[in-house]
DNA sequence: ATGTCTACGGCACGTAGA
């Protein structure tokens, strides 16, 4: 099974590149983030012509996640149980007797594809460590940890991949000194990732196509991609059964080049998964 | 270079988010 994850930064703006990338790369399962469209606006017909079924979860202008699969797509979950909603900076100014029902943002979608439980995740950015958005990010990760613990208990091989908006180590940013006081590198964010790994998930670190660091994101500004000043924030967290069958993984930096790219590159993982589709196989 | 992208509302370009 060839699995990929890619923050496309608008699936509508990226559609020609997405379609040609699908044809060239031939993944069986693709996790997309920042699709920035409602489910009914997702170009399911266009990817369908290439043989992919779609599960999409979106809200319009921001966020949005999807799973594409040509090995089946079943048991779709839009979001996860306990997923928090962003209450914003205005929390506390609302009348106490006027509870407001907030809908979680479209940041997670799960589906079972070819015998593998697949999650496409788009973690909150956090904006700055003193913001309400940062607290929301940490709460979202704690709820994700609880949800993935339950998901793993189902016994299927599992991958939770996407834009985690956290660089796991200082090696995963081009210059740690630039990030002092910033999100993506704080101890609390890295602890949230460590707690996911404590569930038995393994960080599938891809091979960089160029240079020593498998960065997956480079800011559009200031020639950051040209100078390879990037970050590794798009991660594949795989259960033991999947991690033990990973043949290879790479960052497709070619997809970050040229006119009209996303600011993220895809991560592509090849897995020996011939027996995952069988019923009655070993769990986990 | 606070230097780039995107979507939105609404039809020009300012604003917000990343």
From TrEMBL:
<dbReference type="InterPro" id="IPR036691">
    <property type="entry name" value="Endo/exonu/phosph_ase_sf"/>
</dbReference>
<feature type="binding site">
    <location>
        <position position="163"/>
    </location>
    <ligand>
        <name>Mg(2+)</name>
    </ligand>
</feature>
<dbReference type="InterPro" id="IPR037493">
    <property type="entry name" value="ExoIII-like"/>
</dbReference>
<feature type="site" description="Important for catalytic activity">
    <location>
        <position position="234"/>
    </location>
</feature>
<dbReference type="Pfam" id="PF03372">
    <property type="entry name" value="Exo_endo_phos"/>
</dbReference>
<feature type="domain" description="Endonuclease/exonuclease/phosphatase">
    <location>
        <begin position="4"/>
        <end position="264"/>
    </location>
</feature>
<keyword id="KW-0464">Manganese</keyword>
<feature type="site" description="Interaction with DNA substrate">
    <location>
        <position position="264"/>
    </location>
</feature>
<dbReference type="InterPro" id="IPR004808">
    <property type="entry name" value="AP_endonuc_1"/>
</dbReference>
<feature type="active site">
    <location>
        <position position="122"/>
    </location>
</feature>
<keyword id="KW-0460">Magnesium</keyword>
<dbReference type="InterPro" id="IPR005135">
    <property type="entry name" value="Endo/exonuclease/phosphatase"/>
</dbReference>
<dbReference type="InterPro" id="IPR020847">
    <property type="entry name" value="AP_endonuclease_F1_BS"/>
</dbReference>
<feature type="binding site">
    <location>
        <position position="34"/>
    </location>
    <ligand>
        <name>Mg(2+)</name>
    </ligand>
</feature>
<feature type="binding site">
    <location>
        <position position="165"/>
    </location>
    <ligand>
        <name>Mg(2+)</name>
    </ligand>
</feature>
<feature type="site" description="Transition state stabilizer">
    <location>
        <position position="165"/>
    </location>
</feature>
<feature type="binding site">
    <location>
        <position position="264"/>
    </location>
    <ligand>
        <name>Mg(2+)</name>
    </ligand>
</feature>
<comment type="similarity">
    <text>Belongs to the DNA repair enzymes AP/ExoA family.</text>
</comment>
<feature type="active site" description="Proton acceptor">
    <location>
        <position position="264"/>
    </location>
</feature>
<dbReference type="GO" id="GO:0004519">
    <property type="term" value="F:endonuclease activity"/>
</dbReference>
<feature type="binding site">
    <location>
        <position position="7"/>
    </location>
    <ligand>
        <name>Mg(2+)</name>
    </ligand>
</feature>
<dbReference type="GO" id="GO:0008311">
    <property type="term" value="F:double-stranded DNA 3'-5' DNA exonuclease activity"/>
</dbReference>
<dbReference type="GO" id="GO:0006281">
    <property type="term" value="P:DNA repair"/>
</dbReference>
<keyword id="KW-0378">Hydrolase</keyword>
<dbReference type="GO" id="GO:0003677">
    <property type="term" value="F:DNA binding"/>
</dbReference>
<dbReference type="GO" id="GO:0046872">
    <property type="term" value="F:metal ion binding"/>
</dbReference>
<feature type="binding site">
    <location>
        <position position="263"/>
    </location>
    <ligand>
        <name>Mg(2+)</name>
    </ligand>
</feature>
<keyword id="KW-0479">Metal-binding</keyword>
<feature type="active site" description="Proton donor/acceptor">
    <location>
        <position position="163"/>
    </location>
</feature>
<protein>
    <submittedName>
        <fullName>Exodeoxyribonuclease-3</fullName>
    </submittedName>
</protein>
């Amino acid at each position: 099974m060839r699995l990929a994850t890619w923050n496309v930064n608008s699936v509508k703006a990226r559609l020609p590149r997405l379609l040609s990338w699908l044809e060239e790369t031939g993944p069986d399962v693709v996790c997309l983030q920042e699709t920035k469209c409602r489910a009914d606006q997702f170009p399911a017909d266009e990817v369908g012509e290439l043989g992919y079924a779609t599960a999409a979860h979106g809200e319009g202008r921001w966020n949005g996640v999807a799973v594409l699969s040509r090995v089946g797509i079943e048991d779709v979950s839009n979001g996860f149980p306990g997923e928090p909603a962003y209450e914003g900076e205005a929390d506390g100014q609302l009348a106490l007797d006027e509870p407001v029902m907030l809908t979680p943002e479209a940041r997670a979608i799960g589906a079972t594809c070819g015998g593998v439980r697949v999650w496409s995740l788009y973690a909150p950015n956090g904006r700055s460590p003193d913001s309400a958005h940062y607290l929301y990010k940490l709460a979202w990760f704690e709820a994700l940890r609880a949800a993935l613990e339950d998901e793993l208990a189902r016994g299927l091989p599992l991958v939770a991949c996407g834009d985690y908006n956290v660089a796991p180590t200082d090696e995963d940013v081009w210059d740690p000194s630039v990030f002092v006081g910033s999100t993506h590198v704080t101890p609390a964010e890295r602890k949230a990732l460590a707690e996911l790994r404590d569930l038995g998930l393994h960080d599938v670190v891809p091979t960089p196509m160029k240079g020593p660091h498998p960065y997956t994101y480079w800011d559009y500004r200031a020639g950051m991609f040209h100078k390879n000043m990037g970050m590794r924030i798009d991660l594949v967290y795989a259960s033991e059964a999947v991690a033990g069958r990973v043949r290879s993984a790479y960052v497709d930096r070619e997809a970050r080049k040229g006119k009209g790219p996303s600011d993220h590159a895809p991560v592509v993982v090849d897995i020996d998964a011939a027996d995952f589709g069988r019923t009655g196989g070993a769990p986990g």
